[in-house]
Specification:
157 residues, mainly alpha
């Protein structure tokens, strides 16, 4: 078996360009959110007042739009027009986003309880919570953007 390249998967099958673009946007979103979270945790004061975090928010909006346009077929189609596999995938990624949102919220609550007397942590909490909620809201779309539908695998063979 040959090594995968940017244009092939692990099985050596060709990955269509639109899937590569969605995957690149998904990876960029993950990196952007990780950077925004690190900045929110390490910024001096409230990250909402700093240009890098605001720029990250605008980049998040652009990447979210790109990802939504690439995943619209499953994400926005009415449930009655989805087949069983598509409905299962959409429900699963929605549940993953929900679980991430709950875990993120609880992590921020724990952070606030543990560091309730640390003014610096309290100043950072709103930006941390916002960044985590941005991540939770886009997580299903990122997963859909990274996933490769089974029909495309069959069409490439």
């Amino acid at each position: 078996m040959s090594q995968p390249s940017a244009r092939t998967d692990l099985a050596g099958r060709r990955v269509p360009a639109h899937v590569r673009y969605r995957r690149a946007a998904s990876a960029a979103m993950a990196l952007l959110l990780a950077g925004m979270l690190v900045f929110a945790l390490t910024s001096d004061g409230n990250a909402f007042t700093h240009a890098p975090w605001i720029l990250g928010l605008f980049l998040w909006l652009v990447l979210w739009g790109v990802l939504r346009s690439g995943t619209r077929a499953i994400a926005e189609r009415p449930a009655e027009r989805l087949d069983e596999r598509e409905r299962e995938v959409r429900d699963r990624v929605g549940f993953i986003g929900y679980q991430f949102a709950i875990a993120s919220g609880m992590a921020v609550v724990l952070m606030l309880v543990v560091f309730q007397n640390d003014r610096a942590v309290l100043d950072r909490a709103p930006a941390v919570l916002t960044t985590l909620m941005l991540a939770a809201s886009v997580l299903p779309t990122v997963i859909l953007g990274w996933a490769r539908p089974d029909e495309e695998l069959d069409a490439d063979d």
